[in-house]
Amino acid sequence: MGEVDHADQVDQQWRVPLPSLVLTQYKILTRDIDLLMVERDVKDAGSSEACRDFATGGVTATEGVVEQKRRKLLMGLFDTPYLSSSQLQGFSSYKYSCVDSSPIAVYISHPFWNWIVQFYPRNWAPNALTLLGWAFVMGLFVFETVLDYDLTANNDGSEHPIPNWFWLIAAIFTWIGFTLDGTDGKQARRIGASGPTGELFDHGLDSWSTVPFTITIFSVFGRGEFSVPCVRLLAVLISVQVVFLVTHWEKYNTGVLFLSWGYDASQYMLTFVYLFTYFVGYKWFKRYAFEGITVAMVFESSFYLACMVSICMSAYNMWHSYSIEKTFKQPSLYEASRPVFSSIALFTISLAWASLSPTDVCSTDPRVFFMAMGTVFSNIACRLIIAQMTNHRCEVMNMLLVLYAFSAGLAMLMPYMELVILRLMCFLVIALHVHYGICVVRQLCDHFKIYAFDVSYLQKQSQQ
């Protein structure tokens, strides 16, 4: 009977349909392969404990590996190596050289910053201060955009002007942003975290801040008789950007960063004007300062004057470096002028587009127009800063500038799509610029073995 039963069992096994048997064996095989692959991935990740959990029947390791792969894939989007190996070597040998001779900075700003930075916790990362200060400035711009998108809220006879309390917030945000921007470097030197990454991060964000600084202050005037047309407001923005550009162009040629006298003065002026507007109201600015000259025109002229003074001072410093000190870094006039070619092209295209636009797109959507132009400028400025910090030749052509020029030309050919083209282009250049900035900072952090917003590595280095 035992032999018969055994024979029946064997016969029953062979009666199982072949496809089902193959499918069962396939499932077992694939499960074993999945187990081996997950164990390998977990081991590669250095998670032996998670591997043991999985081997005992849990799913924690599998979920952990999947999540890790997702994060790696996401951050892999920001691993584009924009910096060459020679540029990274240039950053390694970079030495900071700066002169800040502004009387306002020497006698007011720096003493205040030296005092207040003593109260900062030592675990506050300098780059976090930089980013937070920029966030106050840009956040104010976004907030004001909600209240006055097209810069018309403070027009004569407006039924919904910008609320008075906003200008108090504007003064506070401007002052906090200015203080954080001024103390980030002092905090870095205080805790021993100084380096080229922080300088690039700081000045790169400053180049982008030219847009909110300019547009927010002129929102006080609205539009109309007692304001300035949007094309002239664009010219004011360009004058601010020229001051920033010339300062770093000067360093590209001399090796020394002479900080503009106008920056500190402008921050105090902005804070004062916002406070003054809060107390007296925006209608106070609806007047003529002199016969035929409005208060807005006086403001406009002050920007142009500051720009001209900055250009003259930088020109003198470069001449002195070339003729007297013999420390000029560039071998020819062409090489010395390379950093300004892209910016001149950007300014020319922007003024032409704003002036010749078939739909007057600059007046239709001034904020998007200025932000698109300002983002391209910031990208050009960041690449100039990298060139002078790494002692490399500055690029003449900028791909965001090419996209900007192409969009301007396309808008002229398709006026019925001009506003759509402008907004799409603005979104694209912002995305590309943010991608560039994140990738460069990540690449530098990896090169120097540091973290952008965490200074705990300093304690580990001191213990080694």
Secondary structure layout:
Elements (H helix, E strand, L loop, with lengths): L1 H13 L3 H27 L3 H8 L4 H17 L8 H8 L5 E2 L3 H14 L9 H22 L16 H28 L4 H13 L1 H9 L11 H25 L2 E2 L2 H20 L7 E3 L2 E2 H30 L8 H24 L4 H4 L1 H25 L8 H15 L4 H31 L7 H8 L1
Task: Kindly list the characteristics that best describe this protein.
464 residues, mainly alpha, two-stranded antiparallel ribbon, 19 helices, globular, disordered N terminus
Would you mind describing this structure in some detail?
This protein is mostly helical and 464 residues long. The strands form 2 sheets. The protein has a two-stranded parallel sheet. Helix 2 packs antiparallel against helix 3, helix 5 crosses helix 16 and helix 6 crosses helix 8. Keywords: Membrane, Transferase, Transmembrane, Transmembrane helix. This is Ethanolaminephosphotransferase 1. One of its GO terms (cellular component) is Golgi apparatus. It comes from Cylicocyclus nassatus (Nematode worm).
- The total number of structural domains is 1
Strand residue percentage:
under 5%
- As a whole number of angstroms, the C-alpha radius of gyration is 30 Å
Low confidence ranges? 1-59
- Helical content class: over 70%
- Kindly report how far apart the N and C termini lie: 78 Å
Oligomer state of the chains in this structure: single chain
Strand order of the largest sheet: 1-2
Q: How many helical stretches?
A: 19
Element string (H = helix, E = strand)? HHHHHEHHHHHHEHEEHHHHHHH
User: What number is the mean pLDDT?
Assistant: 87
Shape: globular
The beta-strand count equals 4
GO molecular function: ethanolaminephosphotransferase activity
GO cellular component, one term: endoplasmic reticulum membrane
Protein name: Ethanolaminephosphotransferase 1
Keywords: Membrane, Transferase, Transmembrane, Transmembrane helix
